[in-house]
Amino acid sequence: MLYVIWALFVAGAACSIIYAVRKNRRHEQRIAGWPRLQATVTGSRAGWTSGVGNMTPSHRFWPTYRFSDPLGRTFTGESEYSFIRRPVPGSLLEVAYNPANPNESFHVSSETRAMLGCAIPFFAVFAVVLFWFVGIFPLA
């Protein structure tokens, strides 16, 4: 019975990681040809993380930014990446924007790729250790 629970955990973790990797890859491919430029932080929106999975909710900040396209038109956006500290207005962020619709822009960050790069080996090692633990766990 414990091996079934282990297999369900491993299958769930694998599906979650595959979904996240594919979503990130689609996003990166979508913005690969978009122009990139430096945007100026204009402020931030404060909020809380969800606290899912026995994690304590924490106060986070999502920077708002402004940038100008080559024609001099000004556009604004909000980062989808949160910061622990309030970003300093006037600081710079790298932004990719859709030339067909400059209102569509994204803060360029390697944060998601780094998180996935850490999550994959963590879950692999955790699954092996859990398999070993299930094997030595006495069933009465």
Description:
This protein has helices at residues 2-31, 111-136, and strands spanning 36-48, 59-68, 74-78, 92-98, 101-107. It has 140 residues and is an alpha+beta fold. It has one domain. The chain has a five-stranded antiparallel β-sheet with strand order 3-2-1-4-5, with no helix packed on it. Helix 1 runs antiparallel to helix 2 (111-136). The longest helix has 30 residues, at 2-31.
Annotation keywords:
140 residues; alpha+beta; five-stranded antiparallel β-sheet; 40% helix; elongated
Strand order of the largest sheet: 3-2-1-4-5
Count the DSSP helices. 2
Low-pLDDT runs of 5+ residues are none
Mean pLDDT across residues:
87
The main pleated sheet reads as: 5 strands, antiparallel
Report the count of strand segments: 5
Give the overall form: elongated
Give the N-to-C terminal Cα separation. Answer: 12 Å
Share of helix, binned: 40-55%
The proportion of strand residues reads 25-35%
List SSEs in N-to-C order.
HEEEEEH
Return Rg in Å: 20 Å
Domain unit count:
1
